[in-house]
């Protein structure tokens, strides 16, 4: 699911870095706050995960919206599956939160490559 990158020395990543990075994936507002607060965005681990979490959430919600619209047009019964898919995708963000809480830099396919190409990571 997510390709793991080399982990920098443990001294560079604090418990607060890990906690904030983990919260950024399931709660996108935390990612926005991390990018607005000077002390947080200066921490490489927090910045990396804040940018990646924000982009991942935007992509996930676009996918959910498109799938919901398509399924909603097909059938009201099948359209109810969109709620289930939204829940499943939220659990994916919990996996990313778990990985970041353990101090890992990891790549989310396509999203991380795009962010690196834009020099956001």
Quick overview:
The protein is mostly helical. The protein has helices at residues 15-24, 28-36, 38-41, 44-74, 76-79, 81-101, 111-117; strands spanning 3-4, 106-107. Helix 1 packs across helix 2 (28-36) and helix 2 packs antiparallel against helix 4 (44-74).
Characterise this structure:
With 121 residues, the protein is mainly alpha-helical. It has helices at 15-24, 28-36, 38-41, 44-74, 76-79, 81-101, 111-117; strands at 3-4, 106-107. The protein has a two-stranded antiparallel ribbon. Helix 1 crosses helix 2, helix 1 packs antiparallel against helix 6 and helix 2 (28-36) packs antiparallel against helix 4. The protein is elongated. The model has no long low-confidence stretch (mean pLDDT 84).
Structural class: mainly alpha
Oligomeric assembly: single chain
**End-to-end distance:** 19 Å
Number of strands: 2
Helix content range: over 70%
How many distinct helices? 7
Low-confidence stretches: none
As a whole number of angstroms, the C-alpha radius of gyration is: 16 Å
Please state the average pLDDT score: 84
* Main pleated sheet: 2 strands, antiparallel
Helix and strand element order: EHHHHHHEH
């Amino acid at each position: 699911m997510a390709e793991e990158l080399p982990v920098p020395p443990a001294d560079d990543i604090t418990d607060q870095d890990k906690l904030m990075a983990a919260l950024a994936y399931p709660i996108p507002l935390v990612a926005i706050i991390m990018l607005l607060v000077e002390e947080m965005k200066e921490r490489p681990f927090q910045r990396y995960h804040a940018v990646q979490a924000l982009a991942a959430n935007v992509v996930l919600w676009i996918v959910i919206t498109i799938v919901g619209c398509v399924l909603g047009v097909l059938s009201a019964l099948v359209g109810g599956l969109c709620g289930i898919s939204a829940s499943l995708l939220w659990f994916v963000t919990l996996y990313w939160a778990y990985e970041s809480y353990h101090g890992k830099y990891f790549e989310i396919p396509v999203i991380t490559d795009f962010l690196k190409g834009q020099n956001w990571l």
